[in-house]
Each structure stands twice: as C-alpha cells, then as structure tokens.
Amino acid sequence: MSLWTSLEPASATVDPGGSTRVRLRLRNTGDVVDEYRFEPVGSIAPWTAVEPQTLRLYPGTTGTVDLTFAPPRTPDATAGPNPYAVRITPTEHPEAVTVPEGNLTITPFTEVRAELVPPTVKGRFRGRPQLAVDNLGNTKLTASISGSDNGDQLAYDIHPGNVQIEPGRAAFVKASLKPRKIIWFGPKEQRPYTLSVLRSGANPLAVEGTYLQRGFLPRWLATFLGAFLALALTFLMLWIAYKPPVKTAATEQLKDAGVSTLAPSPTLSAAPPSPSPVVTSAPPAAETSTAAAAGGGSGGGGDSKPSAKPKPATAATAVNKLAAQDSGRHVCYRIYIGGKGWQAPECDGATAATSTDDEQILSVNIAVSGTAGSAANAFIHDPASTNGYGKYQPSGWTAIIADGKDNYIGSAKPGAAYMTGFANNIGSGQLCWIVRNSGWGWSPQNCTKPRPEYGFSGTLDNAHWLVAVRLTVPN
C-alpha cells in the first residue's frame, strides 16, 4: 500500500440541524506523484461533504481533506452512533483503494406534533374525535394521553391511553367524549375540552377541541308539540260542548198520517225509487289530461329541457361497483395530471400514470371497500425548501374517510404544486403500493399494517414528481 491515512478525530458528535468537521490526513508513501479522489460512503453519505474532492501529492508529502457532516433535523437522522467511511481511489493505481472508517454520533432530539381530527365534533350523547400524534424526532416517543375540560362537564374514554411511536411515524388515538348532563330541550351548547400528550420530563402538549352538544329535542319541536296538544284539547272540549243531538221522528209521522206500521204483504212489491241525477263539477282526470295534451299540441309543443351532464366516474364510483359484485376488499384510485385533468379510475394494482415524465400528478382520489376506511396526506413540492425536501399539505392527516367514499389529497387548482409522494393508511388488513417518480424506475412493492401504522409512497425529494401509482389491499 502506497498511502497512509488518519482521521482526526476518529469519533465525532453532531446535533441534527448542525454540523461538525473531521480532518482526514494522508501521506503518499509511494515513489510516484499520484492524485487521489475521495467519496463518502455509508448511511450518512448524503449528509457528508468532502473538501477538496481530489488531492495531488508528491512522494513523501502529506495532505489534508476536511469532512463536514450536516445531518438534517428530521427523523431520518437516527440518534446514536453511525459508522461512516471515505473511499480513496488513487489515479495511478485505481485498484489500490483505501477506505478509512470513523464513527459519528448523532444526538437525540424530540419533536412531537398532535392534531384533533376533526377539531369540532357534534352529538347528543357522545362525540368521537381522533388524536393524530406524529413523532418528528429521531428517537422513539413514549407518551400517555389524557383529557380535561373546565367544570368537569365531560367524561373521557381514550384508547389506547399510552402510545409508543417510532421516529417518523404517527399513531391515532380514539377518544370518546360523553357529557355528564343531557340537554333535553333547547339550543346546542359548546363544551371546549383539551387532550394532552404527556411525556416524561417534558411539558404536556395540549390540543384543544370543541364538543358541540345538541339537545335531545330541539326547542321548535317542543313548542310545536305544546301548541298541537293545546289545540287538540280545545277541539275536544268544543266537540263535547256543542255536539248536536240526533233524534228520529219516523214513528210519530207515521201515526199522524194514519198509516199502519205493520210489514207489507209478501205479494205486494214496492217499486224502487228512480235514481236521482248525478251532477259533476269537473271532467274526469283522464279527460282533463287528454285536454291538456291536446292544448299543448295545438300550441306547437313545449320547450324540451336539456339532458343533465353525466357526473364523472370517481374512485368511489369504481370501488362501489366492485364491492357490489363480490363484497370483498378493493381499492380504486385516479390521478389529476396538470394541464390534462382527472383520468379514469384504476383499481386493485392497475397502473394510473402520466403519458410522459414531463407531466406531473397534482392530486390523487382514493376510495376503498372492506378496509374500515382510509386516511391520507399529500407530500408536495416546496419552492421555499432549504434542505431539498418537500412538505406535507395539509400539515395534518385527512379525516378517516369511510368505505365507499371519495378521499382527495393534493390540489387540482390552477398553479397547484405537484406531488412527490403521499402517506396513507387503512383500518384493517394490509395496504401495498408501487410508485414511480420522474427520472426513476418503479419502486419495489412495500406493504404496511392497519392503523396506527401507515405507508409512504414516493419520495421526499423536491425535484422528482410523482408520475405513476399502483395500490392494492390484499386479503
């Protein structure tokens, strides 16, 4: 070997979002002038900068190279020791590669985000919000969830009460709010409450929401029933007081006329009375219809209404047709291409894609059946990014959309940012995906378990937009 190397120091520590520098010292121990190329390798290579990238040394001389480590403040920067290496390739003897190794310790940091979905719930006897807790730090998060409100007006049933969340993952906590007092009549009342994420050695993270409690019977219905009962009692009293007496005078009239009340002889028959004429005040319905039709015809015909424009087929339209055929598990999806609009929905692993890599997906419409609903969140291009990554839009998850309903992520508005990926989950079974971004080939198939687990399809890289999607929900 014609090269001697040394890392100074061999072990270093850095905070996520900060940077540190390690010096690589090397000496040409050979007998010819050589030029060396430097390339960082390992899991932290994307965050490593080498300056200079090439160095020319004469025999017996020594040079130095600076290695700058700048891990981002994201869950990808795993806390703890992270080994790294630098591949040194001589120009004169490219087969004599040297790879000095070192160790970089990334300090842990904790960042938690929580959001109520939805922030306002309504109900007469119970409200059921969900708390989405995201671990944006680089260490496992352990926390408990509790609820409180002013005046102790609500009782809380929270499941699970304790969560453990890996870095970069999220957990969904179901809460059931039950009012301690029922409103029988009257308007709805707002009851503010707070769900707190409690962590050891840290201040609680409080998320505020509102429970809108409705009355059991609305005030207008109580007023209507009271008025109706009063009118019914009034009518009954008037009927009893002014009921006309019914009395027959047939016997007296017969006696006054001197007619016997005995039954007539069987041999005699009385002629039936002649029927009285029936007077109608209006023609029959059929005639009226005929006359109306005739009148319309004589007028040259009425104006014909234009037929309604058929609604476009959405992902929910497609998934409901499949569910009606076999009642199984299905997922359907369609994409919105910038400049071209919504495409036809695809289902169960079929490809929804742009025509070329120059076209961009701006929005995705997803619907499921047999999976206990789905939730999703778009990851879009961020023109203000300083680290080359995009951003989630919106910042929190969508509400859990029930089976057979449309879920939309991203934006189909003019000038909307393109999607680089998206996160989504389902309530039961597995969710699997394969996607492709511009300039790259298809990703390998990945699968995730049901909530609170979720999957991410695509990339965080700002420069590669989403161009193709395949989703499946295996049994």
From TrEMBL:
User: Which UniProt keywords are given for this protein, alphabetically ordered?
Assistant: Hydrolase, Membrane, Transmembrane, Transmembrane helix
Region described as Disordered: spans on this chain: 265-313
Cytoplasm recorded as keyword: no
Q: Locate the compositionally biased regions of type Gly residues.
A: 294-303
Which residue intervals are annotated with compositional bias (Low complexity) in the record? 265-293, 304-313
List membrane-spanning regions. Answer: 220-242
Molecular functions (GO terms) = hydrolase activity
Put simply, this protein is called: Hydrolase
Q: Name its species.
A: Streptomyces prunicolor
At the highest ranks, the source species' classification is: Bacteria, Bacillati, Actinomycetota, Actinomycetes, Kitasatosporales
